[in-house]
Amino acid sequence: TRSTMSEGGVGGPAVVVVVSGKRKCGKDFCCDIISTRLGADVCEIVRLSGPLKKQYAEDHGLDYDRLLGASDYKEKYREDMIRWGEAKREADPGFFARLATKARTSVHRQICIGLAFFTCTVSLRL
Q1: Which has the closest alpha carbon to 78: 56, 59, 98, 94?
Q2: How confident is the model at residue 59, as a pLDDT?
Q3: Residue 84 has pLDDT above 70, yes or no
Q4: Which residue, among 113, 114, 85, has the nearest Cα to 97 in the 3D structure?
Q5: The pLDDT value given to residue 83
Q6: What does R_g of the chain's alpha carbons equal in angstroms?
Q7: Rounded distance, CA 85 to CA 120, Å?
Q8: What span, in angstroms and rounded, lies between the C-alpha atoms of 63 and 44?
Q9: Is 24 in contact with 78 (CB distance < 8 Å)?
Q10: Phi, psi of 28 (to 5 degrees)
Q11: CA-CA distances (angstroms) from residue 109 to 7, 15, 86, 125?
């Protein structure tokens, strides 16, 4: 029999794909293509930047919704947010992964695509 893990149940998804790259390199575009091809019933995109920005906004008393958009507001805090995020990851490497996992909308999907913002060291062909 299959385990809960392999069925994408409470134990987590059977497959986790992390897509990373520099700003504006097409991560969202690639993840949307993968998700569309696999189908929303088995695949979910989890964006790591959302939970990161939410925690940063809570820690600094800022407007989370404004940090999500492409705005001067976000740009004003970008460098500090990067430093803050690096310090959090240095102290606890799994901190943001745990936040993103909590942000999942369904524990029943078999595939979870984690969208990160780190420099990509491996290229994938779609």
Answers
A1: 56
A2: 95
A3: yes
A4: 114
A5: 93
A6: 16
A7: 18
A8: 26
A9: no
A10: -60, -45
A11: 8, 9, 30, 23
CB atoms within 10 A of CB 35: 16
Buried-state track 90-100, b at ≥16 Cβ within 10 A, e below 16: eeeeebbbebb
* Alpha-helical runs (H) found in 7-104: 27-38, 49-60, 64-68, 72-91, 95-102
Residue 26, by phi and psi: left (phi above 0), alpha (psi -120 to 50) or beta?
Answer: left
| Inter-residue contact 47 to 115 (CB < 8 Å) | yes
Q: How far is CA 100 from the centre of its chain?
A: 6
Range from 9-23, 38-52, 60-74 that averages highest in pLDDT: 60-74
Which of 104, 90, 87, 109 lies closest to 50 in space, CA to CA?
104
Q: How far separated are the first and last CA of the chain, in Å rounded?
A: 31
Give the number of C-alpha atoms closer than 13 A to the C-alpha of residue 9, restricted to the C-beta side: 6
Per DSSP, 112 falls in state E
Residue with tokens 């929303």: 40
